[in-house]
Write a structure and sequence with these properties.
Blueprint lengths: L12 H16 L4 H8 L3 H13 L3 E4 L4 E4 L11 H21 L4 E6 L2 E7 L16 E3 L4 H9 L2 H12 L12 H14 L2 E2 L2 H8 L3 E10 L2 E11 L5 H7 L1 H19 L1
Antiparallel strand pairs: 1-2, 3-4, 3-8, 4-5, 6-7, 7-8
């Protein structure tokens, strides 16, 4: 996947704000001005203007009685050019379902996109102990999640360096590691040696109250990296040592199976 080059002009802030609002509406399915404000930090008056514009253009529907917003089918037009993601998700879905049934824990398969890992498919079920918001389209920080670290550790060297430079240039807390080359290189080398990555403890504390952790591996076939695959578990149920004994081998196997299927389908 190509990494965009640095723009030669100042980004249009109104467009950036509208896209932030649209992304939150898509993630929440039934969003309100207040919930969008919490997620984006944008001024509420600005959010209303963005929503009204998106509504006028047909990308957002408004439920007046409850003051809730949801995306419309028109948003599908925005993803028509991204067939690779749909292809990977479709190939991976049966394997993810079988893996979930065999080990009892959910998984995500994700690819790198601009500055984060984007979940393409998940085996997470609603109503379960790990049924938090991780639907397809969810963006995970590269240097704090198992799928991000696993992808970065096993991607080609030139791509790895491009991603690190791009992350280092963005003043975002989870990108700090990109500005600490010795620590980051040590993490990536350890990940390559172990063959897997784990979720950052601080990220687990901030996002999941320290209750959840994840193990991630690359989805790679004959040196070609397609994606990264994780398994998410409750800390009180499995320690890292236990997961290495019970989960790692099956996780690697399903990643290998998906990579082989992707290579065969492409060829």
């Amino acid at each position: 996947m190509k990494t965009p080059t640095k723009p030669s002009f100042k980004p249009v802030e109104a467009v950036a704000r509208a896209l932030k609002v649209l992304r939150v509406v898509s993630e929440e399915r039934q969003a309100t001005v207040a919930s969008i404000h919490r997620k984006t930090g944008l001024d509420k008056a600005t959010i209303v203007r963005m929503l009204e514009t998106l509504h006028h253009e047909g990308y957002v529907a408004k439920e007046t009685e409850r003051a809730q917003y949801s995306v419309t089918a028109r948003t599908l037009l925005l993803s028509q050019g991204y067939e690779k993601s749909r292809w990977i998700a479709g190939v991976a879905e049966p394997s993810l379902a079988r893996f979930r049934n065999s080990i009892g824990w959910p998984s995500d398969i994700a690819v790198f996109d601009v500055d984060a890992m984007v979940v393409l498919q998940t085996s997470r079920e609603s109503g379960g102990p790990l049924s938090f918001n991780r639907r397809p389209g969810f963006r995970s920080p590269m240097l704090a999640t198992s799928i991000g670290i696993a992808y970065l550790a096993f991607c080609p060297t030139d791509e790895c360096q491009r991603i690190i430079r791009q992350l280092a240039a963005v003043d975002e807390p989870w990108n700090q590691l990109a500005r600490e080359p010795e620590r980051l290189n040590a993490l990536l080398e350890r990940t390559r040696k172990d063959g897997f990555a784990v979720m950052n403890d601080d990220y687990s504390e901030q996002v999941f109250a320290g209750n959840v952790w994840a193990m991630g591996v690359p989805v790679v076939h004959k040196g070609e990296l397609f994606a990264a695959l994780n398994v998410m578990m409750l800390k009180k149920a499995l320690t890292l040592s236990e997961a290495r004994k019970q989960i790692l081998a099956p996780l690697r196997q399903v990643a290998d199976d998906i990579a082989t299927q992707l290579a065969a389908a492409r060829d």
